[in-house]
Design goal:
The protein has 150 residues and is mainly α. 80% of the residues lie in helices and 0% in strands. It has a domain at 2-78.
């Protein structure tokens, strides 16, 4: 189990980094000012230099990816589907929201936190629905094959 957890964390870390880097590219393109916006200016001010802010954000995203990778093991437990989903969502929220606050990805206000959480929940639910549909299709195909072999 420890090997599997370590393996998932090591796979998740670069995925988390890659996703965060892609987000900065899309955010920079949407700014339409021709500049690359790697980090929020408030994080630069907090860290002292842009290079330190980028390094901090990169390290944090590696850690987040590792946590998310490790969390994938929840889906292999004997818990109920609802229990796994709620636990996964809760832990992801407890990891992501403080990171978003510290990295200045949200306004530092109650409204900013609520808006960010709403966006996070929307994206989580969209990914969950997509995954659910894909798994349901696979199960139908497997059941069809099993039925054909009887």
């Amino acid at each position: 189990m420890k090997k599997k957890l370590l393996s998932r964390c090591l796979i998740g870390a670069p995925i988390g980094f890659t996703i965060s880097f892609l987000i900065t590219i899309f955010a920079s393109l949407s700014a339409e000012d021709g500049r690359f916006h790697a980090v929020h200016p408030d994080l630069v001010a907090l860290c002292g230099t842009e290079a330190r802010a980028v390094a901090l954000q990169a390290g944090v995203m590696l850690l987040c990816g590792a946590v998310y990778g490790g969390l994938s093991l929840l889906w292999e437990t004997d818990w109920s589907f609802t229990g796994i989903t709620l636990a996964h969502f809760a832990i992801c929220s407890l990891v992501t929201l403080p990171v978003a606050y510290c990295m200045h990805w949200m306004h530092h206000s109650l409204v900013g936190a609520l808006k960010y959480f709403a966006l996070f929940a929307f994206i989580y639910v969209a990914i969950w629905i997509g995954s659910y549909i894909a798994i349901a299709r696979k199960l139908r195909a497997i059941n069809k094959k099993v039925g054909e072999n009887r």
